[in-house]
Amino acid sequence: MARPRTEMIAKTRAKLIAAGRHAFGRIGYAEASMDDFTGEAGLTRGALYHHFGDKKGLLQAVLLEIDAEMTERLNKVSASAPTRWQGFVDECAAYIEMALEPEIQRIMFRDGPAVLGDISQWQNTPGCIAALSHSLDRLKADGEIIDIDTETAARLINGASSHMALWIANAEKPETVSKRAVAGFRTMLEGLRK
Amino acid sequence: MARPRTEMIAKTRAKLIAAGRHAFGRIGYAEASMDDFTGEAGLTRGALYHHFGDKKGLLQAVLLEIDAEMTERLNKVSASAPTRWQGFVDECAAYIEMALEPEIQRIMFRDGPAVLGDISQWQNTPGCIAALSHSLDRLKADGEIIDIDTETAARLINGASSHMALWIANAEKPETVSKRAVAGFRTMLEGLRK
DNA sequence: ATACCTACATACGTGGCGTATGTAATCGAG
DNA sequence: CTCGATTACATACGCCACGTATGTAGGTAT
Q: Which ranges carry the HTH tetR-type domain (chains A, B) (predicted)?
């Protein structure tokens, strides 16, 4: 297994995903020319169409990669907190912070939904929502939060977080808005507690 | 005032906005050909570029119209409720319901942010957020809700609502998901109450 | 060893956006 | 009332970018 042949293929795939991710993150999906960013990666569109079918296919692959990274980061955050509730709050804060990163914001929250439809239909629940959902499940089992459907709560928090992030990122004074947003967000989370 | 000349101009503008709104709402911004939908309106792209500068300009005009309609609907809902709290809850429910309408969902929540950037920077706070904010202001003045920054709360609710709507709209069983979503949403709102 | 297939590159057609230009109707000045 | 200027569009053109069809070299299987 893992012959040199398949390794080369995996490398080209990775190159294309990386190139697309850079281009999509910087100038956006619509403005990114496939000839340009494949050329920068030392390839052509031929490779892209072979591996991903079309431009949307590459975007999907990029999204999968980013979602996996976000999920891992979220899991690390919640795992390294002293209490589960604290872990959950940290997780939410981390989610907002990630949504402030230009690449994630652009690809995950702007172009992704516009091109591929809502996040819900990308696959059976993306990882970053599943991570929030899982944390809520444990809190519920511990009796720390009120009786609420955890997936619904996860999606509510997901929606609220991403909007907070967009609000902050596009504000004239991001620091000021950030304080207001995080404070309000924490207040909302407290409402879930018993 | 209101000479026949200016009336004609207003009519062409209205025609273009209506045509664009239809096309954007049905097949999406990117897939909508300007030649097609201007032709259906009995005009050409020349008129569009004259009045709106470019394709994005038309989208902005469409968004302004939709936002105004949504604001009016929200204000009516909150005004016709027995109590202010009830008015606010109804308003939130109405917001989710509006977000379920395909045209609003597509233009306002998907293509709009992707093409023009986050809703926050379209203008100084769009009307539908201002409406929620206003309702919260009055509730706060009445001492019905906890101490929270009202604009932040309005944006939290706005974000949560739109995500709920997208979740519902794209679910396999919208009715089932709708019940879960609305129930969870109400629970979250109750957390704002004193 | 040879025939096939995979993984790309190259070449081409098409469609759609933006712009530059044309034109008819209207408005304002004298 | 007349004539120049401006407005409100339509027409024509160029360019870019996507997708597809085709070509090809290297690896794979038997």
A: 10-70
CATH classification (class only), B63-190: mainly alpha
The per-residue pLDDT for range A69-101, each reduced to its tens digit, is 999 999 999 999 999 999 999 999 999 999 899
CATH number of A1-53: 1.10.10.60
Q: Is A140 on the interface with B (CB under 8 A)?
A: no
Strand D nucleotides with an atom less than 7 Å from a protein beta carbon: 8-12, 16-23, 27-28
Helix axis angle for A127-141 and A84-100, nearest 10°, is: 160
Cβ of B33 less than 7 A from strand C: yes
pLDDT tens track for A136-162: 999 999 999 999 999 999 999 999 998
- Rounded to whole angstroms, the Cα distance separating B139 from B116 reads 33
Q: By CB neighbour count within 10 A (0-12 exposed, 13-18 middle, 19+ buried), where does B147 fall?
A: exposed
Identical fold for domains B1-53 and B63-190, yes or no, is no
Q: How far does the CA of residue A190 sit from the closest CA of chain B (Å)?
A: 8
Question: Where are chain B's structural domains?
Answer: 1-53, 63-190
Distance (Å) of CA A57 to CA A47, A64, B29: 12, 11, 19
